């Protein structure tokens, strides 16, 4: 009878020892699930930041194109004004005034585009901030 008691108590799946591996495996699965969810959120944030960066670069390209149009228009008006509008004594002053106006518009757009490219936050600012928060840094 003592052998049957030993066999019953030492069989796998009985007692508190059998629950421990299942609990550890469940904890590891939950940890892996949490890590994967965190990774997914970070990748989604990275994708969002890439979209924002793409939009910002498009804005800069449009501003640069407008700057080129203003600069070209300034040069055309400079030539046209000298030739067509004013008498000989005023041609130079009128052409210079119009050229300064349109060239100043072009320079202003170039300055705005450069300022937009040099944003103080930089690329992936929100992702870096979230990763620092995950590590426990402020």
Explain the overall architecture.
Helix 2 (16-85) runs antiparallel to helix 3 and helix 2 packs antiparallel against helix 4 (125-134). The radius of gyration is 35 Å and the shape is rod-shaped. The protein has helices at residues 2-9, 16-85, 91-117, 125-134. The chain contains 4 helices and no strands. 83% of the residues lie in helices and 0% in strands. It is mainly α. The longest helix is centred in the middle third of the chain and has 70 residues, at 16-85. The mean pLDDT is 79. It starts with a helix and ends with a helix. It has a domain at 49-134.
Rg measurement, Å: 35 Å
Query: What is the structural class?
Result: mainly alpha
Q: Write down the secondary-structure element order.
A: HHHH
Query: Mind describing the biggest β-sheet?
Result: none
Stretches where pLDDT is under 50 for at least 5 consecutive residues are none
Percent of residues in beta strands: under 5%
Topology:
Blueprint: H1 2-9, H2 16-85, H3 91-117, H4 125-134
């Amino acid at each position: 009878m003592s052998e049957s008691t030993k066999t019953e108590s030492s069989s796998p799946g009985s007692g508190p020892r059998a629950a421990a591996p299942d609990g550890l495996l469940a904890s590891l699965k939950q940890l892996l699930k949490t890590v994967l969810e965190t990774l997914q959120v970070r990748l989604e944030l990275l994708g969002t930041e890439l979209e924002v960066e793409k939009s910002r670069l498009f804005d800069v390209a449009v501003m640069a194109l407008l700057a080129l149009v203003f600069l070209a228009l300034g040069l055309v008006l400079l030539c046209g004004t000298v030739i067509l509008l004013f008498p000989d004594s005023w041609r130079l002053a009128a052409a210079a005034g119009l050229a300064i106006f349109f060239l100043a518009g072009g320079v202003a757009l170039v300055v705005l585009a450069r300022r937009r490219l040099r944003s103080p936050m930089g690329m992936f600012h929100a992702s870096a901030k979230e990763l620092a928060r995950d590590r426990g840094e402020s």
